[in-house]
């Protein structure tokens, strides 16, 4: 009898770890395949396009109805529709806005839901908004805070010290004021404010070419590879140390660095740049390809990435700092801090 | 004398197991707390490389239409992509299905093989000879590629050092039975933890022969696939690696597959993998250690990867040695505390190290209820140990006798249903 009891207890203990699994097999709570979005395709303007598609579907047959009422997008919403709208300063709006024409938001106003503007959208200083899709130009004032995204078919101007949320994208140009912070930008081109003539004599610290530049001969040692001034390199470069490229050099193929890559003033790279460390692009540099790093990217005054009609990307996992007068034809993306000086 | 040999052998097995345990734990901790390297999916580039998509098919009438429907719907720029279904000695309706797609879509250019050696490596070699793309991408016939996957895969090759890339495989028939549920959580661990950590740590992510791509001309310059090797994917990984090219992993490049639904099919699959992997180990062990392009860490990880299918037979024999010593009353292997701790560690953690990866993968995937099944993985572990050992023995016999090796296709279960979502 005792033996039988011991056997039963042992079997019970042996089975114990399997009981939760047996329950999961018999009454599954988590047995669906992990989800893959089978129709996902890379679209830097995804937010704006999908919002417009939902909006068009919801308003089908009711395009000329104006007022406040329910509107079903991905879920039922309260929406105000109007031919044009001007929101007073400091007013808070807690519903969706669908404006067929021009839209103006006064200083300090706030918008908890998405805004659509069929015409020109002018957003005043210190406005907080969730998302804005504009079919015309979109002008954001100073210190605007975007929680999610902005998308425009026309030009976008972001005022100084604005926080541009997750994404700002446009079909045309996107101009960033000084001190703007961003995660993802897309425009043709994305450009920062022009250098201030009075400040040109004292460039921002990140524009300095670095103490190791200035060498006049090739140096390859355990810590760095230095390419002297005005050198033309015709081969693909894969460098396991720091790579320092002095001013006015031309690199005709791709460049890959295991550590930092520092390009001096006026350097031209006709291929892509990939790095594991920091990438510093000097003032006036021209990069025809993509710029990608697991670290940070600092782009000096007047540098240009991509060309009209040749869309390229700047991807810095840890951050991107843009100097003044920078032009990027395509997209910028970071999981860290993006800033424009 | 026999007891001494058994004790020494057991000691060696314990040390090797603890080594692999440490490796599993490093990968798990790296994925949980370490710095994560991003893939290239955020690149937006108007100038993508030309692509050839190869789909090996041997009697795939149950699945052929599904994979082709998904591939022709992909968003890769027109004129930059071709799809070559390799109809390899098929005796069912596969050729007719493929011909129908070719009639309707210019980008589908079938290659029908009824002569020569059958098998995936031979088919891929023949297809590469007629391929036009700079980059070759391979999908097995049971896969369901999402619309944007080709673009995401091609972006890896903007990096001039990348020779091959590998995406993530996710079973679509997870709910079917216990086996598919166990394979689902094993796959999660293998990709979400193991492959991503290797990518994070700049070690050796593995090209898996499907949902992956490589530079065609470079690989052809290595001589293409050795048609006698059953694990052509592992062979490709090491072929690129020893020549200084990188193989990278893309966690965000996800694709559904059909996991085996019967234990017999799974057993044959494991046996084939073990056999092929052991062939690759014998081929690339020397070149790996001699390669001037690799760091010490890459060589170590490559070595551990090459030996991964040697572990199960070693463990199986180690278990036998331990039982023999136990019944002989000789289990006191070494009278030291350190060795006691090692043996305890071996039993407590070593055997279960892979399970920590499964747990962490479920957490990272946000699908934690399925970890209740982890205890059942132990049975799968024993199952794998047996079939891997058989594959290892097969490879040993292959090596000694130079016998002819024939390719064994994995049975499909879709039965013509459950097509593209």
Could you walk me through the main structural features you see in this protein, from its secondary elements to its overall organization?
The complex is a heterodimer of chains A (341) and B (421). With 341 residues, chain A is mainly beta. Helix content of chain A is 11%, strand content 41%. In chain A, strand 1 (67-72) and strand 2 form a beta hairpin. Chain B has 421 residues and is α/β, with parallel strands linked by helices. Chain B has helices at residues 2-33, 64-72, 94-104, 120-130, 149-155, 178-200, 216-221, 232-242, 263-290, 296-306, 311-327, 337-348, 353-364, 374-401, and strands spanning 51-57, 81-88, 111-113, 135-138, 162-171, 212-215, 246-257. Chain B has a 7-stranded mixed sheet, sandwiched between helices. Chains A and B meet through helix 2, strand 31 and strand 33 of A and helix 6, strand 7 and helix 14 of B.
Brief digest:
The complex is a heterodimer of chains A (341) and B (421). By secondary structure, chain A is mainly β. Helix content of chain A is 11%, strand content 41%.
